[in-house]
Amino acid sequence: MQFIDSHIHLQDYKTRNTQQIIASLRNTGCVGALVVAAKADDFAKISALADENADWMIPAFGVHPQYAAVSGEEDMLQLEYYLQKHPKAHIGECGLDRLQEADLERQIGLLKRQMKLATLYQRPLNIHIVRAEDVISSLKKELPERFVLHSFAGSKPFLEDMLNRGAYLSLNPKVLQRKAASLIELIPNERLLTESDAPYQAKAEDIPDFIEKLAAIRGNAPEKLAAAIRDNFDRLAK
Ligand SMILES: [Zn+2]
225 CA to middle of ligand 1, Å? Predict the structure, then answer.
C-alpha cells in the first residue's frame, strides 16, 4: 500500500543514518512525508533533508509549545528565513499544551506569532493541541486558511467546529486506544491524514495497518482510503 506519513520527526532518530531510514520508508510504501521541527535547532537539519529528498518530503518549520519558555524573536526570524528558502514548507509543529510547564500565555504568544506567519506566507499550519481546545476555539479567526490538527484526540463539538473552519485531521495509530476513536467516522475522506509522529508515538511502518483499521471503522475500501489520503496530502502541499 502506498501511504503518507503526515507528521514525522526524522531529525530525532538516534540510531541510524537518516538517508537509510528514508530509503527503508520508501521501500515499505511510504510515498510522502511531512518532516516536522519542534525547535529552531531542527531547522537546518530538516532544510538539508528537504534539499536531498525533494521528491519525497515536505519540510515543516516551527516551534513546539514545549519550547515556549526558551523561544523568542530570534527563532521567529530563523523560521521566516527557512519559509522563504522553502516555498512549499509548512509551519509546525506549533500549538498549545497544558501538560507542558511553559506558561500558557507564553505558549499563546508563540502560537499567534506562527499563525500570523502562516497567513502572511500562505502556508499550512501543523497544530498540536493538548487540553487547550477552548483556547484554540477562541483563536479561530486567526487560523490560516489551511491547517492540520496533528494527532487529533479531541472532543466531538471541537471536531465539528474545526471541520467547519476547514481543518485537516491527522490521525495517529494511538487514536484507536483513545476516546476520540469514536469520532473517526465523522471525518470526511477529503480531510483525513495519517501520521506516525515517529520516533515518539508510533512507527511509519505501522501506517498501512492503521489505514486498514480506519477503513474498516469507516466502511471504506482500504486502497481507496489510502488514495484519498494521498490526494489530501497533495492538495495541502500546493
Ligand atoms: Zn510531533
Answer: 23
Residue 114 has pLDDT above 90, yes or no: yes
Average pLDDT over every residue of 10-38? 94
Mean pLDDT value across residues 8-19: 90
Report how far ligand 1's centroid is from the alpha carbon of 93 (Å): 6
Q: How far is the CA of 64 from the centre of ligand 1 (A)?
A: 8
Whether pTM exceeds 0.85: yes
Q: Please give the pLDDT value at position 117.
A: 98
Maximum Cα–Cα distance for the chain, whole Å?
48
Q: pLDDT tens digits, residue range 68-88? A: 999 999 999 999 999 999 999
> Rg of the chain over CA atoms, in angstroms?
17
Between the CA of 212 and the centroid of ligand 1 the distance, in Å, is 23
Domain 3-237 sits in CATH at 3.20.20.140
Q: What is the CA(127)–ligand 1 centre distance, in A?
A: 9
C-alpha cell at 19: 538517508
Ordered by start, the domain boundaries in the chain are 3-237
User: Tell me, what's the pLDDT at 176?
Assistant: 93
- Could you tell me which residues come within 8 angstroms of residue 17 by beta carbon, excluding any fewer than 6 positions away? none
